[in-house]
């Protein structure tokens, strides 16, 4: 073993040292640990006075629902919000990180954050990780230059659009947008259209479900409508309820004394050869 | 030189969950009606249950093309039995037939996860549970399909089946009444639907007892 084997991995980026060993283990039959993906339908659209973002609230681990009501619309700045699809840990980490960077930038410049700033920070981070940070984002906000809406892909490419959808339910949601979107929607029309698009994802995509979250961003104001719609109540609750016995059943009790009690006789010849 | 892998599979999984519970004089067989493929829903209204005989009902989840083929084979074999023996098959007889049919295709299996429910010749409820190649066992209750891992522990807790090796042999059927068993099944599916993406839309329940067969439906979450 040469001395170089004990060096720390290079600064920044992922260390791929264990990939070969992981491949060997998978070939031997080990199941790789799964990670929490958000399945997801996320959308954004630009309306007359600003931007509306929407998201469903289901987080899946393979075929199982891990969280029935998670939050996919992340805060970036007072005037900028970001919806995230893909690996939940990645979307959380990357939006938190850029949100902190934006705050520092606001202190440094003394100005309100711009959407393109968040965009550049996110895309350069994702590009440097070559797609391994599995975060697909819909970034929206209103700044001095006006309302903006962007999509960001895991490899770092971006699009600037009047309406956008991402996630496994993106096709279902885009079908609604392509049919009903027009320029210059009012706030209520916009919220209704976003809700319809998210519902389309919720009911037609198995990776999306539960409730609709909405965020309306306008010049100088924002409205975070958590659980704006709850179209999926539990369908059956038994009236009589169920009882679960508090403890595990005791099937058998057996006490084995570990040490025999020995009588010690005083002054006796105990240790004779 | 790595082994060549197939780039096409003859199987697909259409998801879904089936449950059956045997009672002293009834049997409840239930399945959801959602048929899916990958992340898509193919239809919200597909029955996985078929009544083969007055006293035998088969519920199968898995690959529905194989399930449909299996149902047709069993129905045909049952018709032949009726002609040859001048009587209908009993539920335990149908259970054995299903096992043999599945094992017949041991080296290209039916991708079907079956639960057979019904009444035996004494009128008592019986449930038989299978794997894909025909291994079966008579039990007091069973669950198969994508939601089975969520439902089985709950049924184990509520129905407390006696061990199969106990002496004297204890009855596996539950002492619950018919309506209590139906309530239990509805709760199972409502709960499984919350956490399993492949289970939902509608629940179809078949109840077999001395007076015949009854069917009930219940709405489930559609997301």
TrEMBL record, chain A:
<dbReference type="Pfam" id="PF00227">
    <property type="entry name" value="Proteasome"/>
</dbReference>
<dbReference type="InterPro" id="IPR029055">
    <property type="entry name" value="Ntn_hydrolases_N"/>
</dbReference>
<feature type="active site" description="Nucleophile">
    <location>
        <position position="40"/>
    </location>
</feature>
<dbReference type="GO" id="GO:0004298">
    <property type="term" value="F:threonine-type endopeptidase activity"/>
</dbReference>
<dbReference type="InterPro" id="IPR000243">
    <property type="entry name" value="Pept_T1A_subB"/>
</dbReference>
<comment type="similarity">
    <text>Belongs to the peptidase T1B family.</text>
</comment>
<dbReference type="InterPro" id="IPR023333">
    <property type="entry name" value="Proteasome_suB-type"/>
</dbReference>
<keyword id="KW-0647">Proteasome</keyword>
<protein>
    <recommendedName>
        <fullName>Proteasome subunit beta</fullName>
    </recommendedName>
</protein>
<dbReference type="InterPro" id="IPR001353">
    <property type="entry name" value="Proteasome_sua/b"/>
</dbReference>
<keyword id="KW-0378">Hydrolase</keyword>
<comment type="subunit">
    <text>Component of the 20S core complex of the 26S proteasome. The 26S proteasome is composed of a core protease (CP), known as the 20S proteasome, capped at one or both ends by the 19S regulatory particle (RP/PA700). The 20S proteasome core is composed of 28 subunits that are arranged in four stacked rings, resulting in a barrel-shaped structure. The two end rings are each formed by seven alpha subunits, and the two central rings are each formed by seven beta subunits. The catalytic chamber with the active sites is on the inside of the barrel.</text>
</comment>
<dbReference type="GO" id="GO:0005737">
    <property type="term" value="C:cytoplasm"/>
</dbReference>
<comment type="function">
    <text>Component of the proteasome, a multicatalytic proteinase complex which is characterized by its ability to cleave peptides with Arg, Phe, Tyr, Leu, and Glu adjacent to the leaving group at neutral or slightly basic pH. The proteasome has an ATP-dependent proteolytic activity.</text>
</comment>
<keyword id="KW-0645">Protease</keyword>
<keyword id="KW-0888">Threonine protease</keyword>
<dbReference type="GO" id="GO:0051603">
    <property type="term" value="P:proteolysis involved in protein catabolic process"/>
</dbReference>
<comment type="function">
    <text>The proteasome is a multicatalytic proteinase complex which is characterized by its ability to cleave peptides with Arg, Phe, Tyr, Leu, and Glu adjacent to the leaving group at neutral or slightly basic pH. The proteasome has an ATP-dependent proteolytic activity.</text>
</comment>
<keyword id="KW-0963">Cytoplasm</keyword>
<dbReference type="InterPro" id="IPR016050">
    <property type="entry name" value="Proteasome_bsu_CS"/>
</dbReference>
<dbReference type="GO" id="GO:0005839">
    <property type="term" value="C:proteasome core complex"/>
</dbReference>
<comment type="subunit">
    <text>Component of the proteasome complex.</text>
</comment>
Automatic annotation (TrEMBL), chain B:
<dbReference type="Pfam" id="PF00227">
    <property type="entry name" value="Proteasome"/>
</dbReference>
<keyword id="KW-0539">Nucleus</keyword>
<dbReference type="InterPro" id="IPR029055">
    <property type="entry name" value="Ntn_hydrolases_N"/>
</dbReference>
<comment type="subunit">
    <text>Component of the proteasome complex.</text>
</comment>
<keyword id="KW-0647">Proteasome</keyword>
<dbReference type="InterPro" id="IPR016050">
    <property type="entry name" value="Proteasome_bsu_CS"/>
</dbReference>
<comment type="function">
    <text>Component of the proteasome, a multicatalytic proteinase complex which is characterized by its ability to cleave peptides with Arg, Phe, Tyr, Leu, and Glu adjacent to the leaving group at neutral or slightly basic pH. The proteasome has an ATP-dependent proteolytic activity.</text>
</comment>
<dbReference type="GO" id="GO:0005839">
    <property type="term" value="C:proteasome core complex"/>
</dbReference>
<dbReference type="GO" id="GO:0051603">
    <property type="term" value="P:proteolysis involved in protein catabolic process"/>
</dbReference>
<comment type="function">
    <text>Non-catalytic component of the proteasome, a multicatalytic proteinase complex which is characterized by its ability to cleave peptides with Arg, Phe, Tyr, Leu, and Glu adjacent to the leaving group at neutral or slightly basic pH. The proteasome has an ATP-dependent proteolytic activity.</text>
</comment>
<dbReference type="GO" id="GO:0005737">
    <property type="term" value="C:cytoplasm"/>
</dbReference>
<keyword id="KW-0963">Cytoplasm</keyword>
<dbReference type="InterPro" id="IPR023333">
    <property type="entry name" value="Proteasome_suB-type"/>
</dbReference>
<dbReference type="InterPro" id="IPR001353">
    <property type="entry name" value="Proteasome_sua/b"/>
</dbReference>
<dbReference type="GO" id="GO:0005634">
    <property type="term" value="C:nucleus"/>
</dbReference>
<comment type="similarity">
    <text>Belongs to the peptidase T1B family.</text>
</comment>
<protein>
    <recommendedName>
        <fullName>Proteasome subunit beta</fullName>
    </recommendedName>
</protein>
